[in-house]
Amino acid sequence: MLLDCLGHLDEENTVRAERAELLTQRVETMDGVESLPADPRATTRTYYNFVLRFDRDRFAGNSIDAITRTLSAELGTLVNPVYTPLNRHRLLCPAKIPRGDHTDRQWASLDMSRRRLPEADAARLTCATLTQPVFLDQEDGIEDIVTALDKVRSHADKLLQTPQGASDQAF
Known about the structure:
The protein is α+β, with helices and mostly antiparallel strands. Helices cover 43% and strands 10% of the residues. The chain is built from 6 helices and 4 strands; from the N terminus they run αββαβααβαα. Strands 1-2-4-3 form a 4-stranded antiparallel sheet.
């Protein structure tokens, strides 16, 4: 099955890139939402997740979790906050990692749970991801995303009545 899917990969990457570019253009005109710019060193982009950054003030101060839950309901597909930063991620278990011949001091310097990751923390509070299948939908699916973003922003004050805590879908 995977080998058969590889035969479609180039075509699907092209479609995803075209749709991602269309969404990027549409989001540029929106208030309170932006797509992340490409790294200037990138020559070709492929999309597994497409990240949107939200100005939460434009969404009545709602948490990214409340925003993504509402967008998920509007679109009928998962929209998730970005991953929990590595230094606080539930899968980080430094005690289970083989230490090898590292000294205590070396080991302590490698322990991510002791590090601060302010950019990752900020991203977790403001960024959400759309998964790659939404870019394989019909082209009008991009308009559905834009419409949902507008709707959620225009009704953001009502969202304040919904749970603001971490989403069950957040990873």
